[in-house]
Amino acid sequence: MIVATAEPTPSLAPPVFSAYEVGRRCLTIDRLKELSGFHYDLPSEDDPAVDVYELYRQYPDLQFLPVSGGKDSIVGYTLRNQFLAILSKNHYSRELMLRPDVKLQSMMRPDPVILDAYATLSEASTVLMNRPEESRFDPFVVTLEGKFYGISTVDLILKGMNSFLRRDNEACLEAQFSLLKMPSPAREVDFPAAQDLNGLRFHRFVQPLSGPGGDFVQIYPVNDQLTLFFLFDVCGKGLKASAMVSIIGTALETLMRKATERRSMDSRSITPLLQQLNDITCSLSPQEMYATGIVGAVDHSKEVLALYDFGHGMCWMARSFKPHRLERSAIGSADQAPFFGIHPDLEIRPVYYRWKKGDLLFACSDGIVEQRDGAGRMFGAERVEELLARTLPEPAKVNREILHYWENFREDCRVADDLSLLSVQFESLRT
Known about the structure:
Layout: E1 27-28, H1 29-36, H2 49-58, E2 64-70, E3 73-79, H3 80-89, H4 91-97, E4 109-110, E5 114-116, H5 121-129, E6 140-144, E7 147-152, H6 154-180, E8 195-197, E9 200-207, E10 215-223, E11 226-234, H7 238-261, H8 270-284, E12 291-299, E13 304-310, E14 315-319, E15 322-325, E16 351-354, E17 360-364, H9 366-369, H10 380-390, H11 395-410, E18 419-426
Parallel strand pairs: 5-6
Antiparallel strand pairs: 1-7, 2-3, 3-4, 6-7, 8-9, 9-18, 10-11, 11-12, 12-13, 13-16, 14-15, 14-17, 17-18
Helix pairs in contact: 3-4, 5-6, 6-7, 7-8
């Protein structure tokens, strides 16, 4: 018979998908004994089939038993529902199976799947899904150090994979919001207040659709005279989009740290900085990935905004409750997409606007304007402009009102995309 093995020694890493990592629910040798009442470990292929039937009948929780071929080998397996199916066929089948000379060998299923407890979840999934269709979701045998450890199921494998994926997503989301220097949505209880920075009052909001997302919003004070803000919306969703956000965000952090060290940096330095950021993003991200976005450079001394629009277009300036949608920058040639991170030689040019004290700039991702209601209508730019025309130009209030209106508009319709909003109120530093 198969001899039970002791728990692995502390020097060994715990098995990946066995009881240790998949909820500690693998049916181990001790649990098998408890369910079967065995004084030995596993039934032999030479045992009478009726003995196993009696075990299945006596212990309803017992659904699967490997079959020993001797010399620590497992040569087959039996299923509870297999025995019940034979019994339900006809009286002859029942009488035949219950004869003591009918051995388990004639009843068992051959070719059991035997997986080492240290196999990865992906390896286990591949092996299990390659089984014939009729046995694809049968339980399987787990061995540890070459000896029988217990049995497990496809359901536990799937739950284990989901558990690891969930933990990966949570870790990625945590890293993403650390990069944004914002509290994670899971920890954020109250709507955050606006912040004052370098003569600007601003408020930003990011809410991924599910797990880590593809939106990035950040603001940087370069020096007393210059402030930059960024809003990027990466194509796609989930981990792939989040990876590109990480590339943009970490590269931007490094470039901005170097920029702030050069106290002589002015608005003329922004275009080369963006070209360098675009080059880095192109070289590190997949070829098909790109981002739309808005980058603004606020010159406090000249009261000028240099706006770079990378195919985004969702940016408004509100003055005295009159919103104006800012035109897109003339970026690139006719045969060159203006998206960020898709072309290494992207020609980048800003459009300049003169701002006044009290002006409010609002930008958002397409998750706001492209959200649909139950009738299939989009939220659209006109509703953004409607809110900007009637809301006090206080950044947190503007974002709160936009989100509240957006929630009421979509009602119970499914959220379709990541959300991000940025509101910036201008203050003058001129004496």
